[in-house]
Amino acid sequence: MSRVSGRWKFGLLLALTTAILWGVLPIALKGVMQTLDPATTTFFRFVLAALLLTPYILLRRGHPSRTPLFRRLQAPRSLFQMLAAGGLLAANYALYISGLERTTAEAAQLVIQAAPMLLLLSGVWFFGERLSRRQWLGFFAFVTGLGLFFYPRFYDVFVAVNAYGIGIMLVLTAALMWTGYAIMQKLLLQQFSSQETMVIFYWLGTLAFLPFSDFSALPQLSNMQWLLIVFCGLNTLIGYGSFAEAMAHIEASKVSAILALTPLVTVSIAHLIPFEGLAVEPITALTLCGAALVVGGSMLTSLSKPDQR
Predict the structure, then answer these.
(1) Half-sphere exposure of 270 (CA within 13 A, CB side)
(2) If DSSP codes are grouped into helix, strand and coil, which group holds residue 253?
(3) DSSP symbol at 156
(4) Both ends of the chain: CA-CA distance in Å?
(5) Tens-place pLDDT, residues 61-110
(6) For residues 254 and 26, which has the higher predicted lDDT (pLDDT)?
(7) For the chain, give me the number of helices (H) and strands (E)?
């Protein structure tokens, strides 16, 4: 059983940093996609993260008792799990950004919160775990919140199934892909460090998106958009690094509860800071109540203990 350092203030700061970075990310991606297509945008996210993380992996000294990385990858089972996890993560990125292109930043951020919920349910379906009543209450609050938030868009999502509705379904599918990735990642961490797995995933994603990327629009990018591309690349590294470090200082349930605030960051920034060409969701008492239920349900599910029976 892993222990935490007890430096809860530092852990809280790191978790909040992650929530803020991930909350800003869809808005930054929207800014880049005003010129670049989703595949090219995602390629830059992967390749920048890979280029920045690779030197660290190559130069650091591995644990004396651990077999070199490439030798461990020669095991067929480990190689299959690594490729499967990398493929699922690449699919998650592709589906999320394709959905984001068709919806708003707030909508995409709220729907992607289904990922940890699906991971929680996977424990029930595949591992025979039991959820407590409070966790089930949090889950139903989450689902109710999504229904209230998207009530003004009910026709777009469930009747017309137009671009907006397709975007929502793509993001929901991205959450499902992330759930599969998280399960595979949990298995891989028995043999590899998180940095080792991520650098492989980043290079796999780079190779996967390179054939679909179109660099002809690069000269049209503004200085701000270039800064946004760099930010999107750094966001994955810094956000993930802060997340991993926070787990070392406070309990995982508390980190998850803080990360549940991410949609509120996205909604607040999108509505309080005007961005040219950025569409936003209509804000009413009903949609605000829905967003609050999504966040509250996620936090309740994260902080509640599972049934021990």
Answers:
(1) 28
(2) helix
(3) I
(4) 20
(5) 554 446 677 777 777 888 888 899 899 999 999 999 999 999 999 899 98
(6) 26
(7) 14, 0
CB 41 within 8 A of CB 226: no
Q: What is the mean pLDDT of residues 228-247?
A: 83
Q: Which amino acid is at 91?
A: A
Other C-beta atoms lying within 10 Å of the C-beta of residue 72: 15
DSSP string, 187-244: HHTTTS-HHHHHHHHHHHHHHHHGGG--GGGGGG--HHHHHHHHHHHHHHHHHHHHHH
Measured from the Cβ of residue 211, the count of other Cβ atoms closer than 10 Å reads 8
4 versus 291: the higher-pLDDT residue is 291
**What is the rounded CA–CA span in Å between residue 297 and residue 222?**
40
Asked if residues 299 and 260 have their Cβ atoms less than 8 Å apart, the reply is yes
Q: Tell me what pLDDT residue 130 has.
A: 73
Q: How many CB atoms lie within 10 A of CB 171?
A: 27
Can you read off the two tokens belonging to residue 40? 């090219």
Whether the Cβ atoms of residue 35 and residue 281 lie closer than 8 Å to each other: no
Identify which of 172, 183, 180, 195 has the alpha carbon closest to the alpha carbon of residue 88: 180
Distance CA 240, CA 209 (A): 21
**Is the C-alpha dihedral spanning 243, 249, 252, 254 positive or negative?**
negative
Sequence letter at residue 80 = F
CA gap 11, 247 in Å, rounded = 7
**In which residue are the tokens 């020669």 written?**
74
pLDDT score of 308: 55
Give the pLDDT band of residue 4 (cuts 50, 70, 90).
low
CA distance 155 to 136: 28
Residue showing tokens 């549940």:
260
CA dihedral 250, 45, 267, 21 (to 10 degrees): 30
